[in-house]
C-alpha cells in the first residue's frame, strides 16, 4: 500500500485547511451549537474534511455506491432504483466494495453503521453535511444510525447479498 502515505498526507493537509476555515469563519458557531452530542464538534470537522477529500478524487471507486438522505424517521434513497424509498433494501454481490453515502436531511446528529460488517461512518450534525461508510460485502446485514435511540426511531434498513 505505497499510496497510503500519500493519501494520509493529503488528508492531513485537508484537515489543516478545514481547521483554518472553521477558525476564520462562521463554522465555529455551528460546530459548537451541535455540541450537545458527545464528540459532535470533532465529528463535524472530520465530516467536512472527508467531503473535500472526495472532491479531490483521492478515494478509490467502489463497485456499488448508494446515497441516502438521513432523517430520524429513516434513511431515504436519493438516487437510482432506491430513490424515494424509506430504509431501502441495499444489495451487493459478495466480495464487492460497497460505499453508502449519507446526506443529513436535518440539523440533528446522524451516522451509518453496518452491524455485522463492523464498519461505521463519522457522525454528521448539520443539514446538508455528508459522510460515508465503505466495506467489502460479506454477509446479509443491517445498516442503522448509532446515535441515541435513532435506530429504534426508524433509522434501520437491510443489506442483502445478491
Ligand atoms: Cu440518527
List keywords for this structure.
162 residues, Immunoglobulin-like, 4 helices, binds copper (II) ion, four-stranded mixed β-sheet, single chain, globular, alpha/beta
Describe the model.
There is one protein chain. The chain is globular. The model is unreliable at 10-58 (pLDDT under 50). The two termini are 30 Å apart. It has 4 helices and 8 strands, in the order H-H-H-E-E-E-E-E-E-E-H-E. Helix content is 30%, strand content 26%. The relative contact order is 0.17. By secondary structure, the protein is of the alpha/beta class. A hairpin with a 2-residue loop joins strand 1 (64-71) and strand 2 (74-77). The structure holds copper (II) ion.
Question: Helix content range of the residues, please?
Answer: 25-40%
Largest sheet: 4 strands, mixed
- Globally, the shape reads globular
Give the tally of structural domains: 2
Instruction: Give the topology string: H per helix, E per strand.
Output: HHHEEEEEEEHE
Give the tally of β-strands: 8
Beta fraction of the residues?
Answer: 25-35%
Amino acid at each position: 500500500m505505497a499510496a497510503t502515505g500519500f493519501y494520509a498526507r493529503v488528508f492531513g493537509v485537508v484537515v489543516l485547511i478545514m481547521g483554518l476555515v472553521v477558525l476564520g469563519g462562521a463554522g465555529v458557531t455551528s460546530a459548537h451549537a451541535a455540541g450537545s452530542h458527545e464528540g459532535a464538534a470533532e465529528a463535524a470537522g472530520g465530516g467536512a474534511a472527508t467531503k473535500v477529500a472526495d472532491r479531490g478524487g483521492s478515494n478509490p471507486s467502489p463497485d456499488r455506491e448508494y446515497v441516502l438522505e438521513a432523517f430520524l424517521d429513516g434513511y431515504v434513497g436519493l438516487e437510482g432504483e432506491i430513490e424515494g424509498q424509506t430504509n431501502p433494501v441495499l444489495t451487493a454481490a459478495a466480495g464487492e466494495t460497497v460505499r453508502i453515502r449519507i446526506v443529513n436531511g436535518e440539523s440533528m446528529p446522524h451516522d451509518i453503521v453496518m452491524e455485522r460488517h463492523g464498519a461505521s461512518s463519522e457522525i454528521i450534525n448539520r443539514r446538508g453535511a455528508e459522510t460515508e461508510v465503505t466495506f467489502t460485502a460479506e454477509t446479509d446485514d443491517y445498516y442503522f444510525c448509532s446515535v441515541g435511540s435513532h435506530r429504534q426511531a426508524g433509522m434501520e434498513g437491510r443489506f442483502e447479498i445478491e
